[in-house]
Amino acid sequence: MFPVLSIGPLSLPAAPLILLIGFWLGSTFAERKAKRSGKDPELISKIIWYALIGGILGARLSFIARNPSAFQGDWKSIFSLNQALLDPVGGLLISVVIVYLLASRNRLSVLSLLDELVPFFAVLAPAIYLSNFASGSGIGLLTELPWGIEQYGGPRHPVQLYLLISSLIVLYLSSVRQGPGQARDGSRFLAFVIFTSGYLAFFLSFQEPQGAILWGFRTKQIISWVFFSGSLYLRNQLTKDEVQHAAI
Amino acid sequence: MENFLAPDFTLTSLDETVISLSDLQGRPVILNFWASWCPPCRAEMPAFQDAWLEFGDSELVIIGVNATRQDSLPEINAFLAAIPVNFPILLDFDGSATAAYRVHSLPTTYFINRSGVITDIIIGGPIPLSLLRIQADQLLQE
Predict the structure, then answer these.
(1) Is the confidence at residue A46, as pLDDT, over 80?
(2) Is any Cβ of chain A less than 8 angstroms from the Cβ of B141?
């Protein structure tokens, strides 16, 4: 755990810093991919940064909308830099709307845009797990396995590191170049979701439970299974369409 | 440490009252680790005082734990003369509470429910009053 990075007199919170670096690296990778596939890299970069800024503003506005009475007489805290005053779900929804609107405005198919954004997501995922490791959130269950790391009263599964390694493998796989015309729009993104939700569904079973548990599974695991099966079904449909299209 | 039992401690306050966390079982607690030399601690202390004034009649307990091992009594007194607070300020002379809570940076604030479980941790600051209100309401509703 290293929640704060001390560089000389500066003390910087590690988790948001890692996320910001991940965001910047992801954006750079996505721009390169766009350039390779003949898309406008500046547009891809613009969409990513608009989604980030809109997402942060949306997360704060959504938080205020959910807790308006808490801000009475303390309106200046609307501008507080504290990340605890953000609603991640609200932020994510606003980001999705921004991406959709920008894609429509620039006459880009959403599926094609999602394919272009895969390098961004693939770089952001390890950054998220590393930031969780830094802040000590999402710790594992107690274990006697030799690679258990000492956290909160005993050796525990380093779940954040399991997820980090898995995401780096997915990052490698997603960076393998495809030949032209090999896949239909959306198949690259769906493959990324299949791999990501697959390793999440498996490795989250080693995490200390947080929140509700349904039928012995953590809520996050159930959501991962839903995404895994949904993406698998959709990708299968795309492949079928592709085969039929080729036959015609 | 979220969702874990809050480690117990016994510390002496500035007015020499001995307080143990276990004495407060059944009451929600907001525990703020701070030091006089830490600018965000200085910036957020008025919000804790405002929260104490707002929730003073409820069961909520607000405690400031000074990391005294990294501080000094004259500095602490000067700090509290500039920013007076009414809630108890405990002195962690040997750093045992700071170590038990694995405080890596100051300020760090722990939100502890009636069962003695840490429900949230906020590392760094300053924490605004609005956030303390939300956390306090959640702890009191549990």
Answers:
(1) yes
(2) no
